[in-house]
Amino acid sequence: GDRDICYFDDIYDKDAVTLKTRYEHARDEVYVCHDWKWAKRDAELQLLPITPNTRFTKAYALPPNYARLSNVCSDSGMTIPIEDNCFDIANGQLRTDNEFVFMDYVANDWSEAVWPAYFAACVALKLAEAACLKITYDRGLKQQLGKDYAQTVMPFARSTDSTAQPFKRKLVRSAWNEARLGRQGFSNLRRR
């Protein structure tokens, strides 16, 4: 708090070096902590030429910018979800028995220029918390930064991000919904 760090890449400023070495970790931690709508991408996963050793028969490569899974399906229309117990993610791979895999995911390669202000505030506070002890030696300040992040900044960012785009409710055809809403409203939906 006693001075500004003007140049992030200044190798002669120990505080700038401290921030730079902690930046990627702080940024990536914020990417994985929420299903950020603004940072989503979609992809068809590519089948790898290997067979997993256990449980599943196919392995697919995750995108190189993958941070967090939002949705995984076996069709490009994203209408046939793959159940949680029918896939796993480890070592940069998604393993399953499905022939095709499509996913929505949070990507972690967005330029800082396109970050929403609420996301940038989260990264800045997480970085301040990560570097605090090395720069200020103040445990109380580190605790306060962590508390501000967890109780104020992150909840506001999650709420803002969640309401920034309308929620798309998916209706699933079922006997109960047919009885409640009638058959006509479900003519184009799949049955469970």
Q: What is the ordering of alpha helices and beta strands? A: HEEEEEEEHHH
Identify low-pLDDT runs. none
| Span of the ends, CA to CA | 58 Å
Which class of secondary structure composition applies to the elements?
Answer: alpha+beta
Explain this structure.
- It is a single chain.
- The chain has 192 residues and is an alpha+beta fold.
- Helix content is 38%, strand content 17%.
- The protein is built from four helices and seven strands.
- The chain has helices at 14-32, 117-136, 139-164, 175-181, and strands spanning 40-44, 46-47, 58-61, 66-73, 87-90, 93-96, 102-107.
- Strands 2-3-6-5 form a four-stranded antiparallel beta sheet, with no helix packed on it.
- A hairpin with a 2-residue loop joins strand 5 and strand 6.
- The longest helix has 26 residues, at 139-164.
- The model has no long low-confidence stretch (mean pLDDT 86).
Could you provide a short overview of the structure?
This protein has about 190 residues and is an alpha+beta fold. About 40% of the residues lie in helices and about 15% in strands.
Give the helix/strand layout.
Layout: H1 14-32, E1 40-44, E2 46-47, E3 58-61, E4 66-73, E5 87-90, E6 93-96, E7 102-107, H2 117-136, H3 139-164, H4 175-181
Antiparallel strand pairs: 1-7, 2-3, 3-6, 4-7, 5-6
